[in-house]
Amino acid sequence: MTDPTAKFGTPDLKLEGLQIWVHGRQFPDAADYWDGNWLRVTAHCGRSGASIFATGSIIHLSELDRWRVESEELLKKLSGEAKLACIEPALSVTLKAGSLGHITMEVSITPDHLSQRHWFQFGIDQSYLPPLVRQCQSILEVYPIKGSRDG
Fold first, then answer.
1. What InterPro entries does the record point to (predicted)?
2. Partners of 18 in the β-ladder
3. Is residue 71 part of a domain?
4. What CATH code is carried by the domain that includes residue 56?
5. Which pLDDT tens digit goes with each residue over 103-148?
6. Best label site of 14, 18, 106, 117, fewest CB within 10 Å?
7. What pTM was estimated for this model as a whole?
8. In a domain, 87, yes or no
9. CA of 6: how far to CAs of 43, 44, 88, 144, 147, in Å?
């Protein structure tokens, strides 16, 4: 059986069963905060026979930056949550701290939010956070946030 993700190459972000490939900005010439910061991505989550893809302009760079910051805080405190809380309903990821450095990762992903819902749960630990932060930072270096939220 062929790997359905192989055609995308190495993901820009990989965390347990979640992979995200960034294909570029939705509006590369836009300089304003809202239009200029949408990323065209392919997101995939899979486990135990399930393999779900979501594609399109579903991640805003501000959401990725907030997840990076919250993940750094989660690593420092080993308590609380870090969320990739996307405005678009196709993808969301929540990292919840447990005891002894254990983290529960919950992924909600769908190619069609009007007729489907797919949810995955993974057990990870604090050692997953530094690579996550680096991957988010790498994406933000290639695609810096344009403009300002306030205008």
1. WapI
2. 15, 45
3. yes
4. 3.30.2450
5. 999 999 999 999 999 999 999 999 999 999 999 999 999 999 999 8
6. 117
7. 0.95
8. yes
9. 13, 12, 25, 27, 35
Whether residue 120 contacts residue 50, with contact meaning beta carbons closer than 8 Å, is answered with yes
Residue 60 lies in a domain: yes
Domain count, the chain: 1
Structure token digits, residue 78: 């080993």
Provide Rg for the chain, Cα atoms: 15
- Alpha helices in 4-128, H assignment, sequence order: 33-36, 61-77
**Structural domain of 37:** 11-142
DSSP state of 62: H
Per-residue model confidence as pLDDT tens digits over 19-70: 999 999 999 999 999 999 999 999 999 999 999 999 999 999 999 999 999 9
